[in-house]
Write a structure and sequence with these properties.
- This protein has 113 residues and is mainly α.
- Helices cover 50% and strands 4% of the residues.
């Protein structure tokens, strides 16, 4: 369970103490999250090579699909179709920075060396 709690907390996969992302601003200001190059605690390198995070796009896509399925199940029967499409578009935009951050954290934890 410590791996899952480390992913949720956004901490280093090696020491599980140092944060992966610097927190400049909040998600409500729609600022992109900034990653540390290395873990501030154990000096673990997060970005292994050029193109390392290309696979994180697939994780982000999977997160977005899961979120949209949840929105579909929760709201489709209760709102008109045009409102439903607007709702999905707004939710995708609002969760994009969250998905960016979480997909990179999951990718780092999947391929820890």
């Amino acid at each position: 369970m410590s791996k899952i709690s480390s992913i949720i907390a956004g901490t280093c996969p090696k020491c599980e103490k140092g944060p992966i992302f610097k927190y400049r601003g909040t998600i409500f200001l729609l600022k992109a999250p900034v990653m540390h190059e290395r873990c501030p605690v154990c000096n673990y390198l997060f970005d292994k090579e050029p193109g390392y995070f290309l696979g994180a796009m697939y994780v982000s896509y999977a997160l977005t699909v899961a979120e949209m399925i949840a929105v579909f199940i929760a709201f489709f029967a209760f709102v008109p179709l045009w409102v439903f499409f607007i709702l999905i578009t707004v939710i995708i935009i609002l969760l994009s920075f969250f998905n960016f951050r979480l997909s990179r954290i999951i990718w780092i934890h999947l391929f820890q060396r």
